[in-house]
Known about the structure:
By secondary structure, the chain is of the alpha+beta class. It has seven helices and eight strands, in the order ααββααββαββββαα. An eight-stranded mixed beta sheet has the order 2-1-3-4-6-5-7-8. It is globular. The chain starts with a helix and ends in a 10-residue tail after the last helix.
Amino acid sequence: MLPILLKLKLATAAAAGLAAAASPVTVPADALVMTVAERVAAPIEVKLYDENLRISATVGIRLDGTMDDATAAELKHLFRCRTTGRQHVIARRTLAMLADLADRYQPRTIEFVSVYRVQADESPTSPHRDARAIDFRIRGVPLTQIRDYLWRTYSEVGIGWYPAEQFIHMDSRPALHDTAWTFLTGENHYHPYWAEVARRPAAKVAATPPRHRSGV
Ligand SMILES: [Zn+2]
């Protein structure tokens, strides 16, 4: 079975070929335009780079975090625990956020540092142990921009900023409190100022006019 992304490329190429063959006879424009439903169902091209093994892979993940079976198997292997070699399906919501980021910062590459971790010294409560977390950066995008976007956009998440190590930790944590932290000098600093600023309603900031005294 072909991965969805390849099928999509083939379908697009076929459509382009049809248009070229039919030229100059007009092909109805809407025949080549994807419907909204198709766009939602179509996988996002996610370019990945494994910073430890230095290998690249491109996979198709839908915005809802689902994918075809071949891609799911490939992704499980890519995101495996590097100490034990064990594999686990990564939480769908975490993959949905990954697809969203790939879409938002297209065509940039997402460099992942660490995903699934089940070695003995991994905390029992670690979202990495539960296959819900990804540590990553995006080439050419400031970490602070990714950090603020994720925190502003999603709830039931954990977002950690690691400025010294140069990566962002993101995890989905259904039914748990949102948690933001900065990792500095070997420890997590919770409730960072950036998190407060990122969730401040923009309208409230922008809509506060300077006060004028009446009669002036
Ligand atoms: Zn992490």
